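Task 17 of the worksheet. Students: predict the tertiary structure of the chain below and write it out as structure tokens. Keep your answer in the requested format; marks are given for formatting as well as content.
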Amino acid sequence: MKRLLLFVVALVLAGCAQMTKVGPGETVVDGKLVVKLDGSWNQSALKVVPTATTWTVDGLSVDRLHFFVGLPDGATLAPVAKDARPLVFKAAMPAHEIVSLYQGLLTRDGSSFTLSRLEPVEFLGAPGFRFEYLLVRKGDDVRLQGVAYGVVRDRQLYLMDYAAPRLGFFPRHRPQVELIARGARLKS
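Model answer:
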């Protein structure tokens, strides 16, 4: 019994070590993107998506805020299976093609994606786009709601995406996410 208890404690401590508190205040993401946080988030040391920095408030299985910071022209959003279409970003892509590319990332596990809204907005001081979506995770049929902001600057993609269960968690953190997006800027 003692061994089992020690094993559980070790797992809990290992899980805690994989998160770093960020905020409140100004925080720099990947050395390029400055965001202002009213509250605290937890940055995951685990690369949920290899090309993104991932934050959470309530845990990675509940909510995720992804930052793709300066993804260059020709780079892939994430590795895919050998028989799958590569998710390659091209700087000349219009907003709807970037959304489609991101949809490919979110549905590579068989989850279903529905685009709710796509609109032009200013993001990082330049003409960008904002989109909202619904996602049903294949593994557990949880219905997630998401909002993302994106812009292509200097042939690089900057994308910020927040998703959480649509009942409870998404409405709770959405105002803070919207403030983060509106106040985000590139480091000078």
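Marker's comment: The helical segments are 2-17, 95-106, 169-183. The longest strand covers residues 112-123.
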